[in-house]
Amino acid sequence: MDADTALLEMRQAARQKDTARLTALLPLLAGHPLEPWAAYWELKARLDTATPQEVQAFAARWPGSYQEDRLRNDWLLLAGKRRDWDAFRTEYPRFRMRDDREVRCYATASELMRGQSASAETAAQVKQDWFAQRDLDDGCLLAADLLRQAGRLTTADIWAKARLAMEAKRTSLARAAVALVSSDAALTFAQVQASPIRYLAGRGPRSSELTVLALVRLAAQDPDQAALQLSGAAGADLSAAQRNWVWGTIGKQAALNLSDLATSYYAKVTRPQDLTDDMLAWQARAALRQGDWRQVLRAVDVMSDAREERDLWVYWKARAQLALARTDAERSTARAGLEALANASGALGFYEQLAREDLGLPIVTPPAPTPLTAAEKEGARGNIGLNRALLAILAGLRGEGVREWNYETNLHTPGGMSDRERYAAAAFACERRVWDRCISSSERTEGFMDFAQRYPMPHEGEVVAQSRSTGIDPAYVYGLIRQESRFVLDARSGVGATGMMQIMPATARWTARKIGLDGFSGSQINELDTNLLIGTNYLKLALDEFGDSLPMAAAAYNAGPGRPRAWRAPGGSGPRLDGAIWVENIPFTETRHYVKNVLANTVNYAAMLTGQPQSLRQRLGTIGPAAPDEVARTKDLP
Which positions of the chain have pLDDT values less than 50? Predict the structure, then answer.
């Protein structure tokens, strides 16, 4: 067996946790450029029985590598679970990435266990990591409990974690948080989880915090029923802050359902500061649908400085200020927010483009940065980690190669590479036609943009010809492909979408029949020409279905056509919305981001392909309810 074959077999054995097979194959990789991966898989598979000396020997053999630091991460997790704090404290200072929440929590637990007090900053970091959990882990739960015992985490903090987890439908996380407060409450929690409406209707004393959790769970199922319960007996014993939280949850769920009742639910909140940033975001989105700029501004103003998607809310705040402005000074303040986005040196995405149009500025390809020097290029080409990452990707270890590439560019040194180093790394990936790493690194340059890197056009002849043959703007097809796969020909998603245009097998078969592609088989979907043929034809059918609306067709491509039909206007009535407001109210986070990125990509590709100024607003258009007599043109569109 040759080394390359052995490498792929080892990767499979690692996934199957076949320790014996890994140990048997490892000698075949001696001296191979990707031997660090083989050695990592083999040692990780038996890490629970390995000695500290073996771990240290691995680190000494591959110093400074991604594999060394990833194994250290694995070792620290194991030491934390074993409560082997001496081993943990020995290795933690050497951990470079510091990207694992659970390891950070174990580090705090380690210090608390030996009697050290936690600083306010440390307690805040644990709280942030614990609140961000999506799956129950030992480290952050342990650190939270120790901080509770030390008086650095309050009971209110713990109940807030339980509420957040319940709202996210992470009931195991909610139950674990409740158990920190009271074992009795944890037992009652099962009733809340099983049937919140039955718990709320029960007789006898009830915990106000468990009532909140029941209402939060009910809101996820039926926000209108939760509102009735909160307005009645269930809300009688809640504090004002608790009621505000629940009204915020109900308002958010109603907004996600695109219900006109969302704004009335939010209106019952007496203190907006009691709401989370996520609740406030959906309050602002609901107000956008209603055209209530004053409520948009109020919601955005209460958001914390740490809110996500800062550019999004900078844009909508400026729009609200502009809509409400009555004086030149107020208009100047509003324009300042738009100008901050429009003049951003390292981005020309969705909000930057909207801001430029609002200010009457053209959306054009920015000037290229200063070319790379020979020394800068050689620095990237000589980087061992970057070379190993690209070699792994080209050898079929895409996941491993991507992780190593990201480590080298973003985590190997504090703060990651400089702009110029990332620019050189992107150029290196482009030279090797590893387009996703080219784009990824180029996007992270903050002081300048090289559009040829950020928006490459692989297979230009095939993409442009097929797009025009199908009757679609090539810029739109390029914009969608960049978002779907970043031009990885053999890309495969977790749900089975395949190829550069990420087509599901059933959709591929349906489209092949629709366009009369005789003899089509699923094995052809990764072929460039076939993938483009089927993908562009399906996209054209989606465009035809939605009256050539680019945002609705993109939403259909990502989430299926039934959902954008429902998102047009619930119940088939309502006003026509500015396309940007319609996109902002897409209930699925993934699809909302997807549509924004596809449209922004399209504008940038059009600027490159035509050399002319472009308009995002023109492509967004307006979106309203379907006409009463409108019928689906392609009823079985999958």
Answer: none
